[in-house]
Design goal:
This protein is 41% helix and 17% strand. By secondary structure, it is of the alpha+beta class. It has two domains: 239 residues, Alpha-Beta Complex (set domain protein methyltransferase, domain 1); 166 residues, Alpha-Beta Complex (set domain protein methyltransferase, domain 2). The longest helix has 33 residues. The radius of gyration is 28 Å and the shape is globular. S-adenosylmethionine binds next to strand 3, helix 6 and strand 8.
Length: 454
């Protein structure tokens, strides 16, 4: 059970967490946060800047700590083993008995949005991503339930009493994703108290690990803070608005990269569609970004989608020494199966008419972006404040606005690219030859028809 936040100072003392001139408080719009209790400064170039927080190593929760905990907790160990994870029996330091932690504020990642809130993502790059994540969490939870159904303790919790449900699993995932840190020595970890620090595009602090493996929060060189000012860190400045919303439940337009990733599908009438999807092995996507003011797009699958046998694409089933069958991709008679994640580069360099191919891919990508833009611009279902939380509405609408603007510019950039490709010598000659062969065909058809009527 979680403790009330007022108990945090006592909990910190009991667990040797040191707060140095900072304290936890409630912020206006970000839940809890940490503020400075006095004026603080670290001149530019300072090597050892003031420490604001230190959390002992044995309170850091990472995969190793989970293993250690399993050695102390029989039921937990049984659960790990049931899902196929075996804990090594080596001797490790006994972990600190973890007492209940003070509660953190509500997590509002899109995976925990309600049925009324999720339509805000319609047409955005998160629509498919959130659906896929929820399906993956559902599968994981079912796998855990099935695998542990013979263990009386877990059978009671997951089947009979219903004390733990899929909703808890989804919530746990959201808590983990929004609070985990990448520590230099302990790797991906959750760290109590340091996980109370909010994000800013102009952060005053950063986290690190000292020689005792403690997780520490330090003032940034060059930073200064006045009493009562919020201490902030950066959650990253290269993440897109969608990534920020997906992982943290908010968007800070000051520190997001202008990019998005959209799903892509093969042409519905492509006889090679299935083979292309299997050989590609990942969810097909197109990546669009604005970098230094210009639009850039790339998609390995879009290239695979737009080439066919006449270009030199081939699929073959090969049998290895053990009799296993493998689908292999050939491009101009070379086995390129292992280069499929570089297909765009490979094909662009070796296609006999690279501009013609680029034009085909640009047309297909532009069509895909137009479909998403149309959905983004279509009217949203009615959302009233009794069923849609203010924060979800604010960040959902912000994502729609950011992605609409990027898609509009990308579609325009693709239009320009198409127009200049249409003027390329190769393309003009190719289109000319197509016209000639088409009119020959029409001529032939006409004469066939004449034959038929004769
Ligand atoms: C690591 S926790 C930080 C502590 C958190 N505010 C709490 O009350 O427990 C990360 C969460 O804080 C909130 N948050 C952090 N920085 C924010 C910001 N700049 N704007 C809005 N919410 C923010 C988001 O809900 C995010 O998922």
């Amino acid at each position: 059970m979680a403790l009330p936040i007022q108990d945090l100072p006592a909990w910190a003392r009991l667990n040797d967490v040191s707060f140095d001139n900072v304290e936890v408080t409630t912020t206006v719009d970000k839940g809890y946060g940490v503020v400075s209790q006095k004026d603080l400064a670290a001149p530019e170039g300072t090597v050892e800047t003031p420490q604001l927080l230190a959390v002992p190593h044995d309170l850091i929760l990472n995969s190793l700590a989970v293993e250690e905990h399993a050695k102390e907790d029989k039921e937990f160990k049984q659960l790990l083993e049931a899902v196929g994870h075996h804990t090594a029996d080596n001797n490790v330091a006994t972990p600190r008995q973890r007492s209940a932690l003070p509660a953190c504020s509500t997590v509002l990642l899109p995976t925990v949005w309600t049925e009324d809130e999720r339509p805000l993502l319609k047409g955005t790059s998160l629509e498919v991503a959130v659906g896929a994540k929820l399906r993956a969490l559902d599968n994981e939870f079912e796998m855990i339930r099935e695998a542990s159904s013979d263990i009386p303790y877990w059978n009671g919790l997951l089947w009979h009493s219903g004390a733990v449900s899929l909703k808890d699993w989804v919530h746990l995932d959201a808590l983990y994703r929004s609070r985990c840190l990448e520590l230099p020595k302990s790797g991906e970890s959750m760290v109590p108290c340091i996980d109370m620090i909010n994000h800013s595009s102009d952060p005053s602090a950063y986290y690190d690990q000292n020689s005792d493996y403690e997780a520490v929060l330090l003032l940034r060189p060059g930073a200064s803070m006045s009493k009562g000012q919020e201490v902030t860190i950066s959650y990253g400045d290269t993440k897109s608005a969608a990534e920020m919303l997906f992982s943290y439940g908010f968007i800070d337009p000051e520190s997001t990269s202008e990019s998005l990733v959209l799903p892509l599908a093969p042409f519905p009438d492509d006889p090679l569609a299935k083979a292309k999807l299997v050989a590609f092995g990942k969810a097909p996507k197109v990546h669009v970004a604005r970098e230094s003011g210009s639009i850039r797009w790339d998609s390995n699958f879009a290239y695979l989608k737009c080439v066919n046998e006449e270009d030199g694409l081939d699929f073959r089933i090969l049998q290895d020494n053990e009799g296993n069958q493998q689908l292999r991709v050939f491009w101009q008679d070379e086995d390129v199966t292992d280069q499929i994640s570089e297909f765009q580069k490979l094909v662009a360099q070796t296609h006999p008419l690279p501009e013609v191919l680029r034009l085909r891919v640009a047309v297909s990508v532009q069509e895909n972006l137009e479909i998403h833009l149309e959905q983004l611009k279509s009217e949203l279902p009615r959302h009233d404040s009794s069923t849609v939380r203010e924060e979800c509405l604010k960040h959902g609408l912000l994502l729609r606005q950011i992605e609409t603007s990027l898609l509009e510019d990308a579609i325009q950039a693709l239009e320009q690219e198409k127009n200049s490709l249409l003027e390329a010598e190769n393309v003009v000659a190719y289109l000319g030859s197509m016209e000639t062969s088409n009119s020959d065909l029409v001529g032939e058809e006409a004469s066939n028809e004449a034959d038929d009527f004769s």
